[in-house]
Specification:
Blueprint (H helix, E strand, L loop, with lengths): L2 H11 L23 H13 L1 E6 L5 H16 L3 E5 L4 H10 L5 E2 L12 E5 H5 L10 E5 L9 H8 L7 E5 L8 H11 L4 H8 E3 L7 E3 L4 H11 E4 L17 E8 L24 H25 L5 E4 L3 H10 L4 E2 L6 H12 L5 E4 L1 H4 L11 E4 L6 H8 L11 E8 L3 H28 L3 H9 L7 E4 L3 E5 L2 H6 L8 E5 L21 H18 L5 E7 L1 E3 L1 H4 L5 E3 L1 H11 L3 E8 L3 H8 L4 H6 L10 E7 L23 H8 L13 H5 L3 H14 L4 H13 L19 E2 L9 H7 L10 H11 L5 E4 L6 H8 L3 E6 L2 H19 L3 H10 L1
Parallel strand pairs: 1-6, 1-9, 2-4, 2-5, 3-4, 5-6, 10-15, 11-13, 11-14, 12-13, 14-15, 17-26, 18-19, 18-25, 22-24, 25-26
Antiparallel strand pairs: 7-8, 16-17, 19-23, 20-21, 22-23
């Protein structure tokens, strides 16, 4: 194998990122014999990993496993061990710890740490509020970490970053909400498996119209679950790991629905004032809140009826609102309530007493007592006095009593109003989705167990692509890795390179590890480009141009720790990278983009935030065309070995001036008024103002004034920039139509759109400026074949490589259509040919 090809293959193989093993190997004999076989296997795997997540179903012994993991790791690493758990759960750890020979001390502050004590318990609030520094410990485990969601998303993210100096970190929870991918990614970040931002980029596609709206790439789904299973064990039953399920049968679950009538007379109105005939709380939060309030008496009455019919059973009375808690207490004076403003010790004591069967009725919110608590010893019935939108709180609350080792059938009563049918339906749909995703994870575990090596072998199969070439009279394109394709191209065989390189790991285009977007960060991306760029220089003719389309990367403050969004100067890195490999930097073209649309996607340039503090605001991020030149053979002269010549009769002095220089022009026309512009409508307004700005001396204050007057008339759009000034500078292109790409044709045909299409305007101008008819124009990242497609239509020969097979075949269709179009004579040409004959 060619050494350079071998090195490239090694680089690609190194992209396979499963969790590292940074812990300790332990023999089975070292594990406490009290642990069940499945628990022993997981403990051994977790200790070897050093940072792992145990997502085991309710009743499979997460507390026992955490204690044993902490004991074994601490014995080898030294230092102290800490388990952080929800309120009401510490007694479970103390009870299990005594069985395993571990004595815990519960603390709330760093000052309570003692030299002679090695094992500690604390609650999440103590760490969140800064009373206890987790970095004082060598081993930390988060029990039921999903409870962090109730603290709010900002606290959730910042909490997980507090443990960076803890060497050995673990997470254990029964419901990691696999359909809430961002939670799983935050766990990966906490454990040090993968940076949160990197994981988001690698596995998820973004909604270009709305920030934070993420969906899993269909082609990355299998890789995502395999990667997840390399650092997290999702265990539903011991048999998932090949062990016996004896003693692990879930009790039967009966869900009983109780619907109370709604008062439709108070249904309210639509936003446009139209009266509603029926209540429907799915319309919004305010309607749901109003319905909760209106239906409360009937729901409480139904709850009381259920309790009267079954006076001997213990019940958990789940609710969401304080008004519901007060109503429950009034209707059932014997009920003991736990609530947010209550003293922590009193709250925890109530939970412990109910667990021990000391009273019959516990009234609580799922966000307070729904995680970690084990009520199965004396209770097997619960009533949801109301329903909410949060599935995780709901399922956690159910599993406080439906667990392995529960001796009684479980009975769940759900009380809802007639108007809440849609809320209930959505909740049940999420339950079904949760079950389906759990089944997917279970199948992976059954196939691979705890063996990361088998997963790595499967992922390695996604390296490489079977090369396929398609050619016509005026084009030659290949479905292949661009590095491997370039290595097989002849030296000095290309007249012009026009391409849009991947923006590091901002997008991934295929499930293959060959994909340049499948990189960890900018440095990793440029390491892969180190294999491609020398090949591009080799195949390009001396003195000819490499036109590289790039865009800077937005770095969000919650990922970088900067607090405010910053910009990664990707276009600068691209220029220096090309120069490192021998290209001469000839300049840069700036392609203006719409700052308003950009802000709608990133939320980084918001008007409100600018008003709060202008120092955190940057500017909109344009696109750039880097003009790079392969050095000509004779460096004593500036001409390319084969110059791109132009006839002065066609390429006039006037055209040269526009291409090469900036210029200003003014006229005696009066200035437009806001009243005149307001009548144009958004689309015509944008075009009219840009043309106006080119025809007149620019006045910044007038620009602002006319925008303010339009806003006062309600005529200033908030979804795109309608008052964008035009550019006289030939190196600043304001008039590139963002919508004219081959994605338009893809949409018409119902085919897959390219995630980052290159505008046809840009390609046409570069081809005409830097190549001559009949020459070869190459794009190593062909995509939908925009560059060779336009090259054919411009009388050149197109060349490209593309890794994504779907894009490749769609692009081939456009190339075939272009050749037919060029071969078809026009009407006047046919008439002239006839006259000549």
């Amino acid at each position: 194998m060619n050494p350079s090809i071998s090195a490239y293959h090694d680089f690609l193989r190194g992209k396979i990122k499963l969790a590292d093993f940074a812990g300790f190997d332990v023999d089975d004999i070292e594990i406490n014999p009290m642990l069940k076989p499945h628990q022993r296997a997981i403990v051994q795997w977790a200790v070897r990993g050093g940072c792992r997540a145990i997502f085991a179903a309710f009743g499979l012994g997460k507390s026992m496993m955490q204690i044993e993991v902490a004991r074994l790791v601490r014995a080898r690493s030294g230092g102290k061990a800490l388990i952080i758990c929800p309120l009401g759960v510490r007694q479970e750890f103390r009870r299990d710890g005594e069985k395993l020979g571990v004595r815990f001390k519960f603390i709330r502050s760093t000052d309570e740490i003692e030299d002679e004590v090695d094992f500690y318990l604390t609650n999440y609030e103590s760490v969140r509020d800064g009373k206890l520094d987790p970095n004082e410990f060598a081993v930390v485990s988060l029990d039921e970490a999903s409870v962090l969601r109730s603290f709010g998303s900002k606290t959730y993210q910042t909490f997980l970053s507090l443990f960076e100096k803890v060497r050995y970190r673990f997470v254990a929870t029964a419901t990691p909400s696999p359909n809430r991918y961002k939670e799983l990614i935050h766990y990966a970040g906490f454990l040090g498996i993968m940076d949160t931002g990197q994981a988001l980029t690698r596995f998820f596609q973004r909604d270009s119209s709305k920030a934070n709206n993420l969906t899993l790439y269909p082609h990355k789904e299998k890789e995502f679950w395999l990667w997840l299973n390399s650092w997290a064990i999702f265990l539903q039953r011991p048999s998932d790991l090949g062990f016996s399920d004896d003693g692990y049968d879930l009790p039967p679950l009966e869900v009983i629905f109780h619907e109370v009538q709604s008062d439709h007379g108070s249904a309210g109105t639509e936003k446009d004032g139209q009266a509603l005939l029926f209540k429907n709380v799915s319309l919004g939060v305010s309607q749901a809140s109003g319905e909760k309030r209106d239906s409360l008496p009937d729901r409480i009455a139904k709850m009381a009826e259920i309790l009267r019919a079954d006076p001997d059973s213990h019940y958990i009375l789940w609710h969401d609102l304080e008004d519901e808690r007060h109503a429950i207490q009034k209707a059932v004076p014997d009920a003991v309530s736990v609530y947010g403003s209550q003293d922590l010790d009193a709250r925890e004591q109530a939970i412990v007493d109910f667990s021990d069967g000391k009273f019959k009725y516990l009234s609580a919110k799922p966000v307070i007592a729904g995680s970690g608590c084990n009520f199965q010893r004396h209770c097997h019935k619960a009533i949801f006095v109301g329903i909410g939108f949060k599935f995780n709180d709901f399922i956690q609350a159910i599993h406080r009593i439906q667990r392995f080792l529960q001796a009684q059938p479980v009975e769940i009563h759900i009380i809802h109003s007639e108007a809440e049918r849609e809320v209930l339906r959505a909740l049940m749909d999420k339950w079904r989705q949760h079950t389906e995703v759990v089944q997917t994870m279970t199948a992976i575990i059954k196939e691979h167990g705890l063996n990361s090596l088998s997963m790595a072998d499967i992922l390695a199969r996604t390296i490489g692509v079977e090369r396929l070439e398609v050619s016509g009279e005026n084009y030659r394109v290949a479905n292949n890795d661009c590095v491997l394709e370039a290595q097989n191209m002849a030296e000095n065989s290309v007249d012009l390179i026009v391409t849009s390189i991947p923006f590091a790991n901002h997008y991934e285009y295929t499930p293959s590890y060959n994909d340049f977007g499948h990189t960890e960060n900018n440095d990793h991306f440029w390491r892969q480009m180190d294999f491609l760029t020398p090949e591009l220089k080799r195949v390009l003719k001396p003195g000819r141009m490499y036109c590289c389309h790039v865009k800077d990367r937005i770095l969000f403050g919650n990922v970088t720790g900067a607090g405010a969004p910053t910009v990664s100067p990707f276009h600068m890195e691209a220029a220096f990278h090309a120069m490192k490999h021998g290209f001469d930097y000839m300049g840069m073209i700036t392609v203006v983009t719409d700052v308003v649309r950009e802000n709608n996607q990133t939320y980084r340039l918001g008007w409100s935030e600018q008003c709060k503090d202008g120092t955190k605001m940057g500017v909109g991020s344009p696109e750039y065309i880097l003009l790079l030149r392969k050095p000509q053979t004779d460096r004593s002269k500036g001409y390319a070995d084969e110059p791109v010549r132009k006839e002065k009769a066609d390429y006039t002095r006037a055209r040269w001036q526009v291409d090469a220089h900036a210029f200003w022009r003014s006229s005696g026309n009066r200035q437009l008024t806001a009243d005149e512009l307001a009548t144009l409508g958004p689309d015509k307004l944008a075009k009219a103002f840009t043309e106006y700005s080119l025809q007149n001396v620019y006045d910044y204050e007038f620009h602002i004034k006319i925008g303010e007057e339009l806003e006062a008339r309600g005529a200033l759009p908030s979804t795109f920039m309608s008052l964008a000034p035009g550019s006289h500078d030939s190196d600043v292109w304001h008039d590139v139509n963002r919508m004219i790409t081959l994605n338009g044709k893809q949409t018409q045909k119902g085919l897959q759109n390219h995630v980052c299409p290159l505008q046809i305007d840009i390609v046409d101008r570069l081809i005409e400026r830097y190549s001559s008819p009949g020459e070869v124009v190459h794009d190593p990242f062909g995509g939908l074949m925009t560059v060779p497609y336009r090259a054919v239509l411009k009388g050149r020969k197109g060349s490209a490589s593309e890794l994504n097979t779907g894009y490749f075949f769609d692009g081939v269709q456009y190339l075939q259509a272009a050749e037919k179009e060029m071969a078809m004579p026009d009407l006047f040409g046919a008439l002239l040919d006839g006259d000549a004959a």
